[in-house]
């Protein structure tokens, strides 16, 4: 199913495209009425999704001709002109639906699906296949839309981008997206993890060396800067780069050229630089561990990736995305129930998207039923949620940390804290008794019915702790 999207605001277009592609549609995008008409003349589309105010005209006023030529094609109108007038004009054209901006992106995707009249069952397989090819970044929460907006601003230029964020938030994925969607996508994407290279080899890795430059340099070596010619050089973990290498890197960035180790020739750099770090660079500068001038050089456009805790709305979509990814990599295919997705959305995910991804892959491997319910997730969650696993040494610290991170509503702290405490406690004891509730109740010294009731309230499934043979 193919959709023509006419939208001149790139950040909105990217989000809509990702949403529609996740629904299994092929999306062609353009930003003007002229392009719209050219595309419509050369190809058949199953639906048209169009903005109203476009650089070369009005998306509604020019619809008449489109509708005469393609009477069966549903049209969906989006508009920031939230006026009654636009709505009336849109419905006058027989448009399938009118969406005032800002609109709910999921609702738009649903409407498009209805408009093209596809049975969900018939396209389920196709959806699975195309979803993995869609925009690599999943998630439509407000914090991520801010990230997408920043990404769109750097696609047509070579400004240096610094991607910041906790470990596992998707910094490398953002660097790749900037490359793939940007104007250097036909060139190479070269990633260097500056923390993983021994200090004495960094210069040679980045800048290359001439034959005989040092013992062991038996042949000329082309460094990452030159390998990334015409494309993007991704300098990962830049906060962990040794001082001396920082100095050399700064010189290269300032002069726009490099010199191979042991070489004389200055080689022009023609590459877009994207750097990333999970470290907080400012205190490192204050402590003399990171060069301030290098910081200003690379921090031209900072893109800050939010932690997964700051965007729980994305967890559902991410979890389903990873389940599909797992299936496409040969693991058993599963579906996530809404209750299970809601349970996942309440977890802290300190390891961010990476932790969620690993969790979902483990789940795909271990879950017995096709449909994944809270009961099949719970035992796996217990494994990652015990205080030892989080490296919290004592209860005082655990309580303080918990209060800081998951602060419940005023008036609900006591009950929430007890629930948070009971969960790992019950899990640990049930693990010991292999899921036997009677013995667990005896060990805990509480009534068996009390235990059963609390397990139900906390949606802990004792079956999950049964020893498997
Ligand atoms: N928005 C997202 N949509 C889909 N997958 C994501 C998203 N964000 C992260 N991932 C996946 O999560 C994993 C971790 O992401 P990535 O390696 O980009 O993190 P990072 O921020 O570079 O972490 P680190 O600081 O530890 O290097 C990867 O497998 C990546 O594909
Ligand atoms: Mg990384």
Task: Describe this entry's structure for a reader.
The protein is α/β, with parallel strands linked by helices and 469 residues long. The chain has three domains: 2-131, Rossmann fold (3-Layer(aba) Sandwich); 142-304, Rossmann fold (3-Layer(aba) Sandwich), CATH 3.40.50; 311-465, Helicase, Ruva Protein, domain 3. 47% of the residues lie in helices and 14% in strands. It contains 21 helices and 18 strands. The protein has helices spanning 10-22, 33-42, 63-69, 84-92, 105-115, 120-131, 142-153, 171-181, 202-207, 224-227, 243-255, 281-286, 292-298, 315-328, 338-345, 352-366, 374-385, 395-405, 413-432, 437-444, 448-457, and strands spanning 2-6, 26-30, 47-51, 53-54, 57-58, 75-79, 97-100, 161-164, 189-193, 208-209, 221-222, 232-236, 257-259, 266-268, 272-277, 301-304, 335-336, 371-372. It has a five-stranded parallel beta sheet, with helices on both faces. Helix 4 links the parallel strand 6 (75-79) and strand 7. The longest helix is centred in the C-terminal third of the chain and has 20 residues, at 413-432. It is flat and about 80 Å long. The protein starts with a strand and ends in a 12-residue tail after the last helix. The relative contact order is 0.07. The structure holds adenosine-5'-triphosphate and magnesium ion. Adenosine-5'-triphosphate is lined by residues 137-139, 165, 167-173, 278, 318, 353-354, 357.
